[in-house]
Amino acid sequence: MYHALKNYPLNDKTGFIIGSQTPWVEVFALLNGAKEITTLEYQRIKINGTDKVRYMHPIDFAKNWETYKDGFDFAISFSSIEHSGLGRYGDPIDPIGDLREVWKTLCVLKKGGWYNC
Questions:
Q1: CA angle (12 as vertex; 6, 13 as ends), nearest 5
Q2: Which of 5, 15, 17, 18 would staple 74 via disulfide (CB 3.0–4.6 Å)?
Q3: Rounded to an integer, what distance in angstroms lies between the CA atom of residue 108 and that of residue 14?
Q4: Is 3 helix (H, G, I), strand (E, B) or coil?
């Protein structure tokens, strides 16, 4: 992740991070200039010392996804989307669940947005 972010500066960009039990990806994004980050996670997270990271439950995000359509410059998922469709977290079994999550993520990225998963 360190090298990926070094090759894609996030200066003044807004993004979202999918699945972040420990917000280390958010810290990397902030250190690389991100203006604002929305983190989608089932459990509330908080980073002390900044108001640039906001938490959102994935179900709330899904219900209001049109509000965010074409709204983010970048998205990052680390060890999250590949679990979609396996039924491990109560989700339905879906052989292409991970691909569906990628397609959904692309809907909320601006044209030319960057996605690291």
A1: 75
A2: 15
A3: 11
A4: helix
Phi/psi of residue 18, each to 5°?
Answer: -105, 125
Task: Look up the pTM and report it.
Answer: 0.86
* CB proximity list for 65: less than 8 A, separation 6 or greater: 104, 107, 108
Tokens standing for residue 54? 């906001």
Residues 6+ apart with CB under 8 A from 85: 91, 92, 93, 94, 95, 96, 97, 98, 100
CATH architecture, domain 2-116: 3-Layer(aba) Sandwich (3.40)
pLDDT band at residue 10 using 50, 70 and 90 as cut-offs:
very high
CA 37, CA 72: separation in Å to the nearest integer? 9
